[in-house]
């Protein structure tokens, strides 16, 4: 046989072996009644599908939180791609396309379309659900956000995928739907996968009752043609474009603030700009409210009130005061618009900063839970646990002397002025971080020259109202994060103090100016810039400590890197805070919490906090009182506890625990693992800085995080055994089996029942701010059935 004939035979074998074969169509009987999408289908999709398919990180961009998302279908294009060299065409549901045909032009393909003969169905969604019904056991590892997952666009690709991965039907790595749930979905697809009726859709999107009155009042405010209102409206919109707005009328409805080509009274026609400060491209345009009718998911549910109290406050802050300049219109020049200190310099800094402080929890939440904060590219820039406080407006020299901001305007520019198409090579030569260093140094010298003796406790903002959040806790959960009012957990390694220019720059860099569809260069430049802003926040905190202590602490926070590269520049001033211990960091924080912040805020230490002079207690010998259990939690939260030292898998960083208590309401506790990092300046891998010997955990009452990595379910009498297991865990087969007794594996037959309990309890506990948890990052290993 000649080599050419042999080669031909091999090609035939190869091509034949690679031929893709679609799975056979599924026999489906059409229900006798018309399946009701809202009453029958949507509840199933919400409970079993939206928990993974709801946002930017939805596998295959398949968003099932609304009929419009289900109808749009899926895409092979991944939004989160750290190696992207060209900007990606935005694909925001309800914004970048409005019809099915428009989405097909953007290469989205249907998951509900049927091409089989009568009595059969080959829709991709049904095929995946049916495959899971026939192959119910989940085995192996499941990473729904992995880069190598296949988004099958047709039956042939799906058949090849399922042949290679027979245990990857849907729900992905979780138990299958119940038979009646599957039958409902199958019947709906067989009937053409219809959505809400015209009348139902009108109800879903309507603004009614008191909400309508307040929406009209606010739209009148936002669209007022006087120059003060025009500029104020732009400033507010740029900070509220991600908000889920509530009018606090008890309606339970949430709204988004958008820019529309149409005025009030007409259907909203959204202007689809990438950023809130981009040129709308049409004049006039109008600020409008649009009701959110997609299912609320917690990871994007950032609530902002626009009630009567807020209306009065906004007028007090922005409309009533005399401005620094005669009010005038601001152009949408892209460079000017990307610098809020230049674009809004006519508004008194005191007004802008006080607005940010009034809503500090929301503002911090936007860059902790916004689209930038997915994955390591964004989050390895912060420590796993830190507390945030703020300079009081009366003591912020950039607020009191706004000329300083104007003088250093060039050094306040941010990489966002380059837009989304920032080149990777250009980003590596990061001139914006260099400008940030110059501003930071000038700011520190300015404070030193103005405040020779230094700052005192009164320089820390204490809050003005019970609802204020002068202290915030940030937890990083590896590739997600959460922010909470008050000081949760034990004493963190670091703390930040934010002033006006720092808070505003973080917001514009990570939220208003960040484009999730931008290039790798765009994302890299923002990551590098955020390094500088973190150092500023830490440095401003250190300026309240005794001068001899400052540099030593900063060096400890940046172990393993060249300290010269940190560019630490302490303010050359003292501090008027009097210290009496050899741990000024702890002493300062304890004084702020216990003696300084407004008591009405309700901020205080929780049971995780070990005060000066105290030590982590040993495990109790017996558990008879509440205090015994609290001591047990404290004992296993200490740095180096066996279980947290052993479990270095970064897919388990926050777990929700249910403690069943007879004749009482069950308790919910979140176990938050705080990974130790020698520093957080390594760009591509923070494994180099991890030290499991110093990892510790906090046990927080209630729910922490949007992405639970594990559920734990136990009876209160089992709690001593569980805590002892954490304290003495050695990784042995016996200990792993013991842990499986308490931990709910993703493949457990009762997983959905457990999930439903936690989800319902969350909504019951936090009706205004709760939403569906995301299960994309639930612990990946499915041990059952192997």
Describe this structure in words.
By secondary structure, the protein is of the alpha+beta class. 38% of the residues lie in helices and 10% in strands. The chain contains 30 helices and 17 strands. The strands form six sheets. Strands 14-13-12-15-16 form a five-stranded mixed β-sheet, with helices on both faces. A four-stranded mixed β-sheet has the order 10-9-8-11. The protein is globular and about 85 Å long. The model is unreliable at 4-18 (pLDDT under 50).
What is the terminal separation in angstroms?
46 Å
Q: What fraction, in percent, of the residue positions are helical?
A: 25-40%
Rounded radius of gyration (Å):
28 Å
- β-sheet strand percentage: 5-15%
Unreliable spans are 4-18
List the helices and strands and how they pair.
Elements: H1 3-18, E1 26-27, H2 37-48, H3 67-72, H4 100-105, E2 120-121, H5 124-134, E3 140-141, H6 155-164, H7 179-190, H8 198-205, H9 209-222, H10 227-240, E4 244-246, E5 255-260, E6 286-291, E7 303-305, H11 308-319, H12 334-337, H13 340-343, H14 349-358, H15 360-369, H16 376-379, E8 385-390, H17 397-400, H18 403-407, H19 424-428, H20 431-450, E9 472-476, E10 481-485, E11 494-498, H21 500-512, H22 520-542, H23 547-557, H24 563-566, H25 584-596, H26 626-636, H27 642-646, E12 654-660, E13 667-674, E14 696-701, E15 710-715, H28 719-728, H29 733-742, E16 743-744, H30 751-765, E17 781-782
Parallel strand pairs: 4-7, 8-11, 12-15
Antiparallel strand pairs: 1-2, 3-17, 5-6, 8-9, 9-10, 12-13, 13-14, 15-16
Question: Summary?
Answer:
The chain is α+β, with helices and mostly antiparallel strands and 786 residues long. It is 38% helix and 10% strand. The protein has a five-stranded mixed beta sheet with strand order 14-13-12-15-16, with helices on both faces. A four-stranded mixed beta sheet has the order 10-9-8-11.
């Amino acid at each position: 046989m000649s080599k050419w004939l042999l080669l031909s035979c091999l090609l035939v074998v190869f091509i034949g072996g690679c031929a893709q074969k679609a799975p056979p169509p599924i026999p489906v009987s059409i229900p006798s009644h018309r399946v009701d999408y809202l009453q029958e289908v949507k509840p199933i999709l919400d409970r079993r599908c939206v928990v993974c398919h709801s946002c930017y990180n939805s596998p295959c961009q398949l968003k099932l939180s609304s009929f419009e998302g289900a109808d749009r279908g899926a895409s092979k294009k991944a939004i989160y791609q750290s190696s992207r060299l060209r900007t990606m065409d935005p694909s925001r549901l309800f914004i970048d396309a409005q019809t099915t045909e428009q989405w097909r032009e953007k290469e989205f393909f249907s998951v509900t379309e049927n091409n089989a003969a009568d009595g059969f169905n080959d829709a991709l969604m049904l095929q995946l659900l049916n495959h899971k019904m026939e192959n119910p056991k989940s085995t192996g590892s499941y990473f729904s956000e992995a880069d190598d997952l296949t988004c099958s666009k047709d039956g042939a690709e799906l058949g090849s995928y399922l042949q290679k991965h027979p245990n990857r039907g849907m729900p992905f790595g979780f138990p299958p739907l119940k038979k009646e749930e599957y039958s409902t979905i199958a019947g709906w697809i067989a009937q053409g996968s219809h959505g809400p009726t015209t009348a139902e859709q009108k109800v879903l999107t309507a603004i009614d009752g008191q909400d309508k009155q307040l929406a009209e009042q606010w739209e009148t405010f936002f669209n007022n043609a006087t120059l003060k209102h025009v500029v104020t409206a732009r400033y507010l919109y740029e900070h509220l474009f991600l908000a889920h707005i509530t009018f606090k009328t008890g309606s339970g409805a949430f709204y988004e603030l958008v820019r529309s080509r149409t005025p009030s009274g007409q259907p909203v026609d959204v202007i689809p700009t990438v950023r809130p400060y981009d040129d709308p491209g049409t004049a006039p345009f109008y600020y409008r409210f649009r009701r959110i009718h997609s299912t609320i998911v917690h990871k994007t549910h950032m609530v902002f009130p626009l009630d009567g109290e807020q209306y009065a406050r906004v007028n007090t802050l922005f409309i009533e005061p005399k401005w620094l300049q005669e009010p005038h219109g601001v152009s949408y020049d892209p460079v000017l618009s990307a610098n809020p200190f230049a674009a809004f310099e006519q508004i008194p800094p005191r007004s802008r900063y006080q607005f940010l402080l009034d809503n500090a929890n929301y503002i911090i939440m936007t860059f902790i839970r916004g689209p930038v904060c997915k994955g390591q590219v964004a989050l390895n820039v912060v420590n796993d646990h830190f507390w945030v406080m703020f300079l009081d407006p009366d003591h912020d020299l950039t607020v009191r002397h706004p000329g300083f901001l104007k003088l250093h305007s060039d050094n306040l520019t941010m990489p966002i002025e380059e837009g989304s198409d920032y080149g990777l090579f250009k980003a590596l030569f990061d001139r914006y971080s260099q400008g940030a260093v110059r501003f930071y140094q000038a700011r520190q010298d300015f404070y030193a020259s103005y405040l020779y003796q230094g700052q005192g406790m009164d320089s820390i903002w204490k809050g003005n109202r019970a609802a204020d959040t002068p202290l915030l806790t940030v937890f990083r959960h590896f590739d997600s994060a959460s922010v909470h009012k008050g000081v949760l957990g034990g004493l963190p390694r670091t703390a930040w103090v934010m002033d006006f220019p720092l808070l505003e720059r973080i917001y514009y860099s990570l939220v208003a100016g960040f484009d999730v569809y931008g290039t790798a260069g765009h994302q890299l430049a923002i990551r590098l810039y955020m390094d500088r802003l973190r150092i500023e926040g830490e440095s401003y905190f250190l300026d309240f400590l005794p001068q001899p202590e400052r540099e030593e602490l900063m060096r400890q926070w940046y172990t393993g890197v060249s300290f010269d590269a940190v560019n630490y520049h302490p303010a050359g001033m003292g501090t008027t805070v009097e210290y009496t211990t050899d741990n000024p960091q702890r002493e300062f924080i304890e004084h702020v919490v216990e003696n300084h912040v407004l008591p009405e805020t309700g901020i205080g230490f929780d049971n995780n906090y070990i005060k000066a002079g105290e030590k982590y207690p040993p495990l109790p010998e017996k558990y008879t009182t509440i205090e015994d259990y609290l001591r047990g939690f404290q004992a296993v939260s200490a740095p180096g506890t066996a279980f947290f030292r052993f479990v270095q898998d970064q897919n388990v960083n926050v777990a929700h625990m249910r403690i069943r208590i007879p004749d009482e309401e069950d308790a919910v506790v979140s176990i938050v693992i705080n990974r130790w990092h020698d520093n957080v300046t390594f760009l591509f891998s923070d494994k180099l800085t991890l030290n499991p010997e110093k990892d510790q955990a906090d046990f927080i009452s209630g729910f922490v995080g949007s992405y639970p990595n594990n559920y734990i379910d136990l009876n209160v009498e089992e709690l001593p055994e569980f805590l002892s297991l954490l304290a003495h865990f050695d990784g042995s087969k016996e200990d792993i089996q013991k842990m499986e007794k308490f931990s709910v594996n993703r493949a457990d037959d009762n997983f959905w029942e457990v999930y439903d309990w936690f989800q319902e309890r969350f909504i019951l506990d936090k009706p205004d701010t709760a939403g569906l948890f995301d299960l994309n990052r639930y612990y990946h290993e499915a041990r059952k059935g192997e």
